[in-house]
Amino acid sequence: MITVQDVLQRDSFRRAQLVAGIDGLGRPIHWVHVGEVPELGQFLHGHELVLATGVSLGTAAARTRYLTGLIDAQASGLVLELGGYLPDVPEDMIVLANRHAFPIIVFKEPVRFLDLSQDINSLVISQHHRVMDDLETLSLKIRQALLNTEGPERLLAILTESIQRPALYLPRDDGEPAIWAGEWPTTPGPFESIALHPEPVTTPEPLVRQTVMVFEKPMGDLLVKNPGQVVDERVYLALDRTAAALAQDFIRTESLDRRRRREEAALLEPLLFDEDPAPHHIQRFRSRYLISPDLAYRVMVMDKVHVERLRPRLRGMATLLELDQTDRLVLVALAPRKKISAFPDALRTLTGPQARPIGISGMYSDPANMHQAFVEANDAALAAHYLNRSPLAYEELGLYRWILGTPRQQLERWLVAPELGPILAREDKERLLQTLEVLLAHIDSKQSASHVLGIHRQTLYARIRTLSDLLGEDFLAPDRRLALGAALVAYRFLTLPPAP
Q: What is the tens place of the pLDDT at every residue in 350-363?
């Protein structure tokens, strides 16, 4: 980038003097333009260094209109040849230029504008050629990195080497880590708006940002530090090329992931859904994943939203295989037995309490047992919904393992009806069921039971008499309490509203 400061150091400007706008020496120059008309500003594109003799600047009004037009058009500065038309720079021009940090440079002796234009424009063109050469070198390194599948870390390193500024990629997905290149004491962002092209960011420090887009979806933001007031052309183009390369790398990764998931689905489907899978399906799984006595697996059932957020972290814990279903994903986590044994606790550490259920099977080694593990994962997900406790592993289900493994009709005929039938036939069944549940939980303290129910103790005794008439006088004996507790759990589960 060529600036006013660079131009002042040229031999052609050896006799020039800066009379105003010293704070604007960092303004970039894209071209040189000669113009005297008062409305010159409307014919400029911005970043032009204007050369003039002052022929139209004889009045204060004309000078204000001329100079204001240049400032509004984002011109780089004004070079004046003093002489017959304008013997000196008027104070009103100096004040206005200083107010807007707009450089005014003067030649007190005649100067050939053609020589100045050729010198500066040749410098701009030479600089542009250097930028193009650097950009071609950057593009070549980017192509090599993409062909060698070196990943986004290498792409950011190439960008930093090219522009000599720190770079940072911030994914829009909270589950993915940022990628750093160079020194970044603080992390900027996050950003919600979309920058289709490089644009300046002023806080917390001067940056340039461009959003990485894939199929019109923002995937992340690419940032570089920008010490100047404007975006350098070289930085602009390098940032744009790197953002495009990151998008290509993401598409490549996604394509490979889709292919891998299709292969995994073909491998998992017969093992998950067939109670007695064919031996060659089992052998294919063993061969592909090098199953050994030290390895074990668990099957998980979870909402797709969970997987998008957890996938990168789960892959750091185990080999992760996926089967996409309509409304959820089935995952098989394969790792050494010690890791798989502790997998439910590790998953809870990652997720925290979840509103939507995550079910985890028991631990298995033989691929022939994957169908059973799938059934267990589904049972754990159902229990997690009922208990509002997720993630939940099959070994943590307790009584629900038996309830979930027993057909509904058998539960009702063998357990619920014999134990709770007299209560369920009454209109006030819910009140009596609640009383029975509290009594079983506070068997040693009627005072605690009445407090939990929010009723007087005499009212509790009246309900106990009703329960005794319906269930028998021994309903609080140890064996009956065990049967009634199991029946209550089964009844509540069977009457659970369907999962959302």
A: 877 666 788 999 99
